[in-house]
Amino acid sequence: MKKKLIAMLLFAAMCLSLAACGQKADTPDTTDPAEPSGDAVTYTVGICQLVQHEALDAATQGFIDALNEALPGQVKFEEKNASGDSNSCATIVNGFVSEGVDLIMANATAALQAAASATSDIPVLGTSITAYGVALDIDNFSGTVGGNVSGTSDLADLSKQADMITEWFPETQKVGLLFCSAEPNSRYQIEEVAKNLSAKGIETKEFAFTDTNDVSSVTQAACDWADVIYVPTDNTAASNTEAIANVTVPAKTPVIAGEEGICKGCGVATLSISYYDLGVTTGKMAAKILTGEADISTMPIEFTTATPKYNATMCETLGITPLEGYTAIAE
Predict the structure, then answer these.
(1) Residue 324 CB-density burial (10 A; 0-12 exposed, 13-18 middle, 19+ buried)
(2) pLDDT in tens, 257-305
(3) Helix, strand, or coil here: 29?
(4) For 230, phi and psi rounded to 5 degrees?
(5) CA neighbours within 13 Å on the CB side: how many for 233?
(6) How many angstroms separate the Cα of 282 from the Cα of each of 53, 62, 137, 288?
(7) For the residues 319-325, what does the mean pLDDT come to?
(8) In the prediction, which pLDDT does 252 show?
(9) CA geometry: angle at 51 spanning 249 and 328, to 5°?
(10) pLDDT tens figures, 211-222
(11) Would you put residue 292 in left (φ > 0), alpha (ψ -120 to 50) or beta?
């Protein structure tokens, strides 16, 4: 009888122990390893890039890298490309506004114009913009846009670009100005370069293509007339450097370019910035805006240092000796 009682007590103790274990296993775990630690704030940033090409891609990547470094794990990027269509830029940024993103990065002039028109509340940072006064139709632009817009400029000294033409080709008498008529910043550049060349007694003539379809024919007309061709920082030209080179190389007409990507594709020399560095600068500005460290309405447009470079392959092809003081563009 005693042994039977002891056995029953042991059995009851085991049942109580198993019940306790079951309750512990069923208790929900209130910790979520996916949740950000501490009081970290997360932000959504919309990126609208006009078109895919080397320079704009580099600016976007620099922007993303800089923001990720400044705010690690705190930024979600909505990256969209308009494939060269200004109307698509408007659609993209209107989508960002509807989503209520915390900041919009507009890469290239058409993207900036669309973003500035779409919102007066969400901070908008432009990058790869040549002239903000021209892009946003601001008279007597002082360097600060105000309101909810700021950013970075890819403008290199245009008077020095004009000087490059005569430095490299001192016998030049006629310069063809090759650009896309749909890009206001391109017109601004070629007009400034034309003024500087006119002061040197050099004749200039505009050769404007409307889109990718007439790049080759317009380039051919420029080659037939000019001793040298100048191509400004122009998104359509940047996307069609192969088409331009296919005309200028057989014609043996050298090209001076407004930026490195165009020069690498069809040019001889350029006074160019690093678009990756430009994007990094833009990303650092974005971090200050998102965290409240800076007020976008008082942030002036920022620039980056330009470097004289040459295209070694093109120089060899055209039999041109590179000038001292110029760095070869990396292959």
Answers:
(1) exposed
(2) 999 999 999 999 999 899 999 999 999 999 999 999 999 999 999 998 8
(3) coil
(4) -110, 130
(5) 28
(6) 18, 8, 22, 10
(7) 96
(8) 98
(9) 45
(10) 899 999 999 999
(11) left
Quickly count helices (H) and strands (E) in the chain.
13, 12
Per residue in 195-205, pLDDT tens?
Answer: 999 999 999 99
Q: Provide the token pair at 139.
A: 């008279």
Q: What is the dihedral of CA 250, 255, 260, 261, to 10 degrees?
A: -40
Tokens of 182: 């749909």
The letter for the amino acid at 150 is S
Q: Where are the beta strands (DSSP E) in the chain?
A: 43-49, 75-81, 103-107, 124-129, 149-153, 174-180, 203-209, 228-231, 255-257, 269-272, 307-310, 327-328
Which tens digit of pLDDT belongs to each residue from 83-121? 999 999 999 999 999 999 999 999 999 999 999 999 999
Rg (CA), the chain: 29
Residue with tokens 């409307």: 210
Q: Given its phi and psi angles, is residue 330 left (phi above 0), alpha (psi -120 to 50 degrees) or beta?
A: beta
Chain centroid, CA 273 distance in Å: 12
